[in-house]
């Protein structure tokens, strides 16, 4: 984890929120509500029903955690704190470790804390990452990848319906994204720009 990567994510989140609503900070959106609803979806992917056989879908759980990260960053940005202060907070509080054997209990603690004060609890979120073996690098790649793809879709006709979700080889854009992300160096400051250019090249092939 480094300050540069955290700053890139904060800037991407601000840019995406601004693209959707120019004055988003002044709107007071209930980001906390989006988080606890995602928690419920996440629980379904992990499995909780004792009356039927269920195996945790950790890949889907990881994707839901990345969605929650989007909303969490929005809460931190909406607080009005500077990027440097938010970055310092993330670096000090995002300690990826847990002493809880049951992931579902950690998830319930996180959801309860979110509902309790409507804030984003980095330490509790980090416990969820640890519970499914997610590293900061995986969070970063997954977050930047999804964010860049969202921008790419908007720039290529998603709003007016002209965007092609299935590309030249019949595969969805998400599949191309996963492949491209793995070929790039996520530690470089240009990671998001290189990713965007790689998507353009594939889309136009």
Automatic annotation (TrEMBL):
Q: Does the keyword Hydrolase apply?
A: yes
Transmembrane domains' residue ranges: none
What are the top taxonomic ranks of the organism?
Bacteria, Pseudomonadati, Pseudomonadota, Gammaproteobacteria, Cellvibrionales
Q: Which SUPFAM superfamilies match?
A: all-alpha NTP pyrophosphatases
Keyword Hydrolase applies: yes
Q: What sort of enzyme, by top EC class, is this?
A: hydrolase
Q: What is this protein called?
A: dUTP diphosphatase
The superkingdom of the source organism is Bacteria
GO MF annotations, alphabetized: dUTP diphosphatase activity
The EC number(s) this enzyme carries: 3.6.1.23
Q: Which UniProt keywords apply?
A: Hydrolase
Matching InterPro entries = dUTPase/dCTP_pyrophosphatase
């Amino acid at each position: 984890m480094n300050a540069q990567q955290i700053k890139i994510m904060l800037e991407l989140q601000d840019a995406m929120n601004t693209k959707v609503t120019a004055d988003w900070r002044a709107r007071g959106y209930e980001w906390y509500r989006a988080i606890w609803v995602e928690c419920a979806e996440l629980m379904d992917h992990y499995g909780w029903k004792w009356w039927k056989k269920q195996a945790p879908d950790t890949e889907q759980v990881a994707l839901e955690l990345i969605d929650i990260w989007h909303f969490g960053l929005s809460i931190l940005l909406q607080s009005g704190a500077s990027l440097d202060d938010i970055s310092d907070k993330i670096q000090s509080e995002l300690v990826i470790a847990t002493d809880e054997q049951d992931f579902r209990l950690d998830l319930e603690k996180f959801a309860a804390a979110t509902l309790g004060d409507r804030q984003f609890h980095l330490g509790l979120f980090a416990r969820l990452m640890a519970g499914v073996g997610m590293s900061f690098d995986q969070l970063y790649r997954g977050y930047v990848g999804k964010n860049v793809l969202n921008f790419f879709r908007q720039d290529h006709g998603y709003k007016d319906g002209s965007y092609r979700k299935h590309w030249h080889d019949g595969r969805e854009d998400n599949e191309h994204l996963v492949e491209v992300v793995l070929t790039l160096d996520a530690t470089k400051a240009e990671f998001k720009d290189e990713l965007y250019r790689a998507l353009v090249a594939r889309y136009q092939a």
